């Protein structure tokens, strides 16, 4: 892909997107610029051949795709600063900023731009993100460009903007939920006799395999669960005990609590 990409914000997510794009070979490192107030902290990206800068305007002005990967409290100031150098006929604006709507972006830069909101998670760095996208004023070609970009970083689904906060909780916060589950599996594995390294490998690969079964086969989780729950067996005994202790309900409550928190912002 020969289009130039400016990632405004070199934090964890912006850096992960940049690394994912070059690892997938979607873009040549020389076509990507990542900005940060203190760009000297981005030496890893520089070593990969990615351009680093502290000049948001310069990076955006020369780009075809501008990805906003900054903190929510920074976006209005950054957009107002960028507005004089942005060209709606040239730039495609893509925001990965949590909780900042397309209408709020339009209020800063105007209604003429093609704008997309994307919600990836930090697995973009290894090409395994789940990215939810919604758009405004985009044609099929521009939507395909962003879909191709994020498809190289994992899986993509287009949704209505009203679901973007929910997507943030289920997909982005969901990484932490999954990792906490894996951590608990590791702790349980250690308790029943494994060393930490072996327990980590078994737990992580088992979860990876379970997810792959759903993604590749398109089955409901209960279909795969039924395959390993024999009558009077150890699997069903363990599952029932987890449910007695509130396993599913606590996870659902956690998701709803996160959603209520993001709704208030």
Structural write-up:
The chain is of the alpha/beta class and about 260 residues long. It has 2 domains: about 5-160, NAD(P)-binding Rossmann-like Domain (Rossmann fold), CATH 3.40.50; about 165-265, ProC C-terminal domain-like fold (Orthogonal Bundle), CATH 1.10.3730.10. Helices cover about 50% and strands about 15% of the residues. It has an 8-stranded mixed sheet, with helices on both faces. Helix 6 (about 140-150) links the parallel strand 7 (about 130-135) and strand 8. Helix 7 packs across helix 8 (about 195-215). The radius of gyration is 21 Å and the shape is elongated. The mean pLDDT is about 95.
Summarize the SSE layout with pairings:
Blueprint: E1 5-8, H1 12-23, E2 32-35, H2 43-47, E3 51-53, H3 56-61, E4 65-68, H4 75-82, E5 92-95, H5 102-109, E6 114-119, E7 129-136, H6 140-151, E8 154-158, H7 164-191, H8 196-217, H9 221-228, H10 234-244, H11 247-263
Parallel strand pairs: 1-2, 1-4, 2-3, 4-5, 5-6, 7-8
Antiparallel strand pairs: 6-7
Helix pairs in contact: 4-5, 7-8, 7-11
Under the CATH scheme, the architecture of the largest domain is 3-Layer(aba) Sandwich
The end-to-end distance, rounded to whole angstroms, is: 36 Å
Shape: elongated
Order of helices and strands: EHEHEHEHEHEEHEHHHHH
- The CATH topology of the largest domain turns out to be Rossmann fold
Overall pLDDT, averaged?
93
Quantity of strands, as a count? 8
Gyration radius from CA atoms, angstroms: 21 Å
User: Sheet with the most strands?
Assistant: 8 strands, mixed
Return the CATH class of the largest domain. Alpha Beta
Task: Tell me the structural class.
Answer: alpha/beta
Uncertain stretches of 5 or more adjacent residues:
none
CATH homologous superfamily label of the largest domain: NAD(P)-binding Rossmann-like Domain
Proportion of beta-strand residues: 5-15%
